[in-house]
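== Folding the chain ==

***
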Amino acid sequence: MGWFSTSTPTAPPKRVSADGTPEAPSRNDRQHCWEARDAYFACLDRHDILDALKDEAAANKNCAGESQKFDMNCAQTWVKHFKQRRVAEYQRKKAIEKIEAQGGTVLPDPAASTKGTTAAAR
């Protein structure tokens, strides 16, 4: 693809094991995915777009390049998951702010205290 090419970049071919099953993404692949995700979400933030699934037209209009890199560097299931998680995290943050504004106390997330431990260690 040249400087003035109108073709869109294609995703690198997926690695497949000897028995034909897809291989898991490498650490480097995951890093590229996360970087593309962060760039895409930064673009959405600049344009005040929270839900890229619901506001797909606005997201595609304002963040087409970042979206293309995100789609190219991440599995489609990851793309959908990250977009849904972005909205869920925002809603969680707003719910916590509302509880605290009403004088309530938010209890710590029990799942957060067990991250990084094995089931046997719990």
Q: What stands out?
A: The first helix runs from residue 27 to 46.
